[in-house]
Sequence to fold (365 residues):
Amino acid sequence: MAKRAAPEVNAGSMADIAFLLLIFFLVTTTIASDSGISRMLPPIKPPDEKPDIIKEKNIFQVIVNKQDQLLVENEVMELKDLKEATIKFIDNGGGTGEDACDYCTGEKNPASSDNPSKAIVSLQNDRETSYKMYISVQNELVAAYTELRNKTANKLYGKTFTEMEANANDVNYSGDKDKLKEQVDKIKKMYPQIISEAVAKKQN
Amino acid sequence: MSKFKKGGKKELPAISTASLPDIVFMLLFFFMVATVMRDDTLMIENKLPQADQLEKLEKKDRIIFIYAGKPNNNYRGQFGTEARIQLNDKFADVKDIKQYILAERAKKREELIPFLTTALKVDVDTKMGLLGDIKQELREVDALKINYTTRKGEVQGNFNN
Fold:
């Protein structure tokens, strides 16, 4: 008897099934992954602990009031100028002796911060400040640190800090990762991000 | 000689759709891979602010979400227009946060606990008072790693509306 060919399965409805699934995934999909500004909150200190004594000149005071206006070191400022002012403060390097900063490129003004590792940015906001203003200010402060780190990294290693950090986190990076991580840590140590946030002031 | 020619007009051959399933499947696989299921139904307005100093939040299993903002149109009648916190699928009070964080933390694998990040998805028009309260609660349960979730963009864009 002649061999009979197996009957062909009708695949005409396959497209319909696939379309159904496709539409389901199209609807439920959110492709964008989350990203944002990362921060560490300060741990709660026991009440009997004495606060550290910090020199006035090492504090960079940024206050945002309830009308979303900026007061930086007792002067009204526009948001766009904040980054420049922050950089100037952090990179001042006015310290002498133990506090001296040999890599700072600032003005070495003795009335401003001693050393990037001593410089503290203090951010205060009102309870009525809007979230968008707060995030914008945070963003500018982080941008100031990033710019300083990039500049230093460029000078020392010929790459920007952002690039180095991305490479250090990249699984496929081909170079010497340990060395790179060491360099990243070194730059982080040169310009540590010290942003202190007081608890929002109560409205009077 | 009509043995081979039938009819007067010659019909156009039908376009083969045999490769259509393949194309659709290709699209399907793309979306299946790229998809992140939306696991919370938002009951609030949640327009995120813009910033350009971003860090990516990878590893979804290490993130706890807290939403805040004004109730959206469907819930305005019931809950008013004051900004509120949303945890999972419910509106919550500031005092519920601690319990929520502890409950979420208990659900995670133990070795992940030191890496847990709390992502704050807060609407642009929220006042900082609410956020300050949230942060205080987080400090009290020792959930210190936080991330203000933002969209990518210039900060000036926050003020253009």
